[in-house]
Specification:
The protein has nine helices and ten strands. With 241 residues, the chain is of the alpha/beta class. The chain is elongated and about 55 Å long.
């Protein structure tokens, strides 16, 4: 994710194949994308997450995933019995994306269960499967009975299921990975953005398109269908919000 030469090689392969718009989809690709946008001014570069862009051929796109995290917090807050909820974070307060996600989830929890507390363990990595399991297990040992996450594998959900507890995944519906544990997950519908961005490029309207930041209203983010593990009142509370 942070190997600059590998990132550069992959992007340049797309350029050499004649791609006119290239989406780079991870925080770790940001600086290399910025550099290549300068080198290839006739190619459009669209980078997901992060914060960099220019005014010609390099924009930034992301979504209001905090909205979906808040909703998943409702599911967690209604489910917990110990009032201790664990959160396996990618990073902590140093990045706006991860900090806002933790805060939104905790606010969702507290909206339905003011007594509950959220305990965070930060991986300091976007991808660390071994510690995604280990940190979830540590939170479970602390007495957390719902495990949320900002990491890509379903390992925290699998750990929760093995412990007879519950959890909220991320990026996709992880019910298939932990059918007895998973409640719901904040999810992305990236096709909403890719369609809009590509159309703008094809119509010659890229410079006016600019940076992109959408949410539930536009269909870019949502929560996955609630599983049967959820508290019976969960859908009612989420629908109200």
């Amino acid at each position: 994710d942070n190997d600059e030469s590998a990132i550069r090689e992959s992007i340049e392969a797309c350029v050499s194949e004649g791609c006119k718009i290239i989406f780079t989809t991870s925080y770790g690709y940001m600086d290399t994308t910025e550099a290549l946008a300068k080198e290839y001014p006739n190619v459009i570069f669209s980078h997901g997450t992060g914060y960099k862009s220019n005014e010609t051929n390099f924009n930034n796109y992301f979504g209001r995933i905090y909205q979906a995290r808040y909703l998943s917090g409702i599911a967690a807050g209604l489910k917990t019995k110990s009032n201790k909820i664990g959160y396996v974070a990618a990073y902590g307060t140093e990045l706006a994306e991860t900090c806002s996600g933790i805060n939104a989830f905790a606010l969702g929890v507290q909206s339905v269960n003011p007594e509950a507390e959220v305990y965070v363990k930060s991986l300091n990595s976007w991808f660390d499967p071994a510690n995604e399991t280990a940190y979830a297990e540590a939170l479970l040992e602390m007495g957390c009975d719902v495990i949320a996450q900002h990491c890509d594998t379903a390992n925290p959900q699998v750990a929760a299921e093995k412990a007879g507890k519950f959890g909220c995944g991320y990026n996709s519906d992880m019910t298939k990975d932990a059918p007895k544990a998973h409640l719901t997950a904040p999810i992305w519908n990236w096709g909403v953005y890719y369609t809009e961005a590509t159309k703008a490029a094809m119509d010659g309207k890229w410079k006016e398109f600019g940076n992109y930041y959408a949410g539930i209203k536009e269909g870019l983010v949502d929560v996955s269908p609630l599983s049967e593990n959820c508290d019976e009142n969960t859908q009612k509370y989420i629908d109200a919000v």
